[in-house]
Specification:
The protein is of the alpha/beta class. About 45% of the residues lie in helices and about 20% in strands. The protein has a domain at about 45-130: 2-Layer Sandwich (Nucleotidyltransferase, domain 5). It has helices at about 5-35, 50-60, 85-90, 105-120; strands at about 60-65, 70-75, 75-80, 95-100, 125-130. The chain has a five-stranded mixed sheet, with helices on one face. It is rod-shaped and about 100 Å long.
């Protein structure tokens, strides 16, 4: 059973008309696969889930400074080491920058970091401050 030449031409013209449409759809599909993500964000990249988390994420990091003479400053206010546990509980979930001079005793710095971690501070960053050269 042979097709007539008119019917063959009509099928060929239909194929020729659909080919550019198929190419465009394929190119769009490839484009969106590269640009988009399928399945949403991974769990570790999802945003905060509560208002407290949003507030903690937007807040600037808290500052804890250990001075060379042994004094502690929390957000610019001098506190005793005994008060640090209460202050650390208030900072629960927040980021904290701990500034310590290069000559500070390592065991004291580690004790401060451990106390902050036990209180549930979110992110801890230790910043060592070099002594300025005189002259």
């Amino acid at each position: 059973m042979k097709l007539s030449s008119a019917r063959r031409r009509r099928l060929r013209s239909l194929d020729d008309a659909l080919l550019p449409l198929i190419n465009i759809v394929f190119l769009l599909m490839v484009f969106f696969l590269f640009v988009g993500r399928v399945g949403g964000l991974p769990a570790d990249e999802q945003g905060p889930r509560s208002r407290a988390d949003i507030h903690a994420a937007e807040a600037a990091p808290r500052q804890l400074e250990l001075r060379a003479d042994g004094r502690l400053l929390a957000d610019g206010r001098e506190i005793a080491e005994a008060e640090l546990a209460v202050q650390a509980l208030a900072w629960r979930g927040a980021a904290v920058d701990v500034r310590a001079p290069a000559e500070a005793a390592a065991d004291r710095v580690m004790r401060l970091l451990g106390l902050l971690r036990q209180a549930g501070v979110g992110e801890l960053r230790l910043l060592t401050v070099r002594a300025r050269d005189a002259g």
